[in-house]
Amino acid sequence: MTSKTREDRTTADSGRYPVEGRARAVIEGVSPEIDAGRFPIKRVIGDRVVVEADIFADGHDQISADLLYRFADDAEWMRTPFVALVNDRWQSEFVVDQLGRYQYTIVAWVDHLKTWRHDFDRRLAAGTHSLIDIKIGADHIAAHAKRARGEDAKTLSDWAGELADATDLDAATARALDGVRLATALAYPDEALQTQYGRELEIVVDRERARFSSWYELFPRSTGSNGAHGTFGDVERLLPYIAQMGFDVLYLPPVHPIGRGFRKGPNNNVDSEAGDPGSPWAIGAAEGGHKSILPELGSLEDFRHLVGAAADHGLEMALDIAFQTSPDHPYVREHPEWFRWRPDNTVQYAENPPKKYQDIYPFEFETDAWRELWQELRDVFCFWIEQGVRIFRVDNPHTKPFAFWEWLINSLKTEHPDLIFLSESFTRPKVMYRLAKLGFTQSYTYYAWRNTAWEIREYLTELTTPPLSDYLRPNLWPNTPDILNEYLQSGRRPAFIIRLILAATLGASYGIYGPAFELLEHVPSEPGKEEYLDSEKYQLRQWNLDHPNSLRDLIAQVNQIRHDNAELQQNRTLHFHTIDNPTMIAYSKSDAERRNVMLTVVNLDPYHSHSGWIDLDLDVLGVDETRPFQVHDLLTGDRYLWSGRHNFVQLSPDAIPAHIFKIRRHLLTEHDFDYFM
Amino acid sequence: MTSKTREDRTTADSGRYPVEGRARAVIEGVSPEIDAGRFPIKRVIGDRVVVEADIFADGHDQISADLLYRFADDAEWMRTPFVALVNDRWQSEFVVDQLGRYQYTIVAWVDHLKTWRHDFDRRLAAGTHSLIDIKIGADHIAAHAKRARGEDAKTLSDWAGELADATDLDAATARALDGVRLATALAYPDEALQTQYGRELEIVVDRERARFSSWYELFPRSTGSNGAHGTFGDVERLLPYIAQMGFDVLYLPPVHPIGRGFRKGPNNNVDSEAGDPGSPWAIGAAEGGHKSILPELGSLEDFRHLVGAAADHGLEMALDIAFQTSPDHPYVREHPEWFRWRPDNTVQYAENPPKKYQDIYPFEFETDAWRELWQELRDVFCFWIEQGVRIFRVDNPHTKPFAFWEWLINSLKTEHPDLIFLSESFTRPKVMYRLAKLGFTQSYTYYAWRNTAWEIREYLTELTTPPLSDYLRPNLWPNTPDILNEYLQSGRRPAFIIRLILAATLGASYGIYGPAFELLEHVPSEPGKEEYLDSEKYQLRQWNLDHPNSLRDLIAQVNQIRHDNAELQQNRTLHFHTIDNPTMIAYSKSDAERRNVMLTVVNLDPYHSHSGWIDLDLDVLGVDETRPFQVHDLLTGDRYLWSGRHNFVQLSPDAIPAHIFKIRRHLLTEHDFDYFM
Question: Do B343 and A399 touch (CB under 8 A)?
Answer without folding.
Answer: no
